[in-house]
Amino acid sequence: MPRRGKRYRRNLALVDRERTYSPAEAIALLKRFEPARFDETVEVAVRTGLNVRHADQQLRGTVALPHGLGREVTVAVFAKGDAAKEAEQAGADFVGAEDLVERVQNGFTDFDVAIATPDMMPLVGKLGRILGPQGKMPNPRVGTVTTEVGKAVADAKAGKIEYRTDRSGIVHVPIGKLSFHERALLENYAAVIEEIMRAKPAAAKGRYIRSITIAPTMGPGIKVDPTRTRDIVEEVAAAAA
Questions:
Q1: Is 73 helix (H, G, I), strand (E, B) or coil?
Q2: Which key words are in the record (predicted)?
Q3: Residue 135 has what pLDDT?
Q4: Whole-number Å distance between alpha carbons of 20 and 8
Q5: I need a labelling partner for 161 at 20 to 30 A (CA). Which of 72, 84, 115, 139 fits?
């Protein structure tokens, strides 16, 4: 295992590895970390008890973060005609049809979200090997294959993000920047956890959420109490009253 840097070790010393923290305690502890030279992204990792080898236990969807991600989201839209104009008016960064498909085939993937109209999917489907591994392939299940491209672009720009389980049944979701105010991070965290609870597959067996860890890009993880999944922000407000 590679030796960690001094800053990482100093931050790790602040964390009690034998306990799980409440969501508010975990975020307050994050804010005490010595920061890196850039504004780190805060990410939540939720380990579920889902057996993702079964299609009915896979988890995938979108969630709107109340405070966004703290960065500019770049959106590419595959559309023609009026839909293309609508996408441009909504603020899409790249809009095109066959020309945009060809551009991606030639290696262009400098965007965060890809949206497509249904009529474009026969062409966009050819990009699966490129966009799929990057998690950017348009999908009707998460609202990125739609006739309402203007709304989809606006949602993406406002901080609507996609989540899904990986091969180990873990969901990795960014919830903002370390520079965010504690309450903003907590509200984003609450939105993610409440959405994952809402989307629990009917076929899920046993304990649904096994563990939750929150960590900045260059820092150690903090274990969060996996039983604290409801009324997260309300609990903090009540304690402060």
A1: coil
A2: Repressor, Ribonucleoprotein, Ribosomal protein, RNA-binding, rRNA-binding, Translation regulation, tRNA-binding
A3: 84
A4: 20
A5: 84
Domains of the chain: 14-69+160-240 (3.30.190.20), 75-158 (3.40.50.790)
In angstroms, the CA 96 to CA 80 distance is 7
pLDDT band at 241 (very low <50, low <70, confident <90, very high): very low
Could you tell me if 38 and 57 are in contact, meaning their C-beta atoms sit under 8 angstroms apart? no
CA distance 146 to 162: 15
Distance from the Cα of residue 126 to its chain's centroid = 25
Nearest to 221 by CA among 22, 11, 70, 10: 11
pLDDT digit string, tens, across residues 162-186? 898 999 999 999 999 999 999 999 9
Tokens of 106: 């030639």
Torsion sign over Cα 221, 166, 76, 141:
negative
- CB-based contacts of 51: which residues, under 8 Å, 6+ apart? 57, 169, 205
Question: Which ranges in the chain belong to alpha helices (H)?
Answer: 6-12, 23-30, 81-90, 98-105, 121-124, 128-131, 149-158, 182-198, 232-240
Amino acid identity of residue 110, one-letter, is D
Share of the chain above pLDDT 70, in %: 96
Q: Evaluate if residue 235 carries a pLDDT over 80.
A: no
Residues contacting residue 230 through CB under 8 Å, at least 6 positions apart: 194, 197
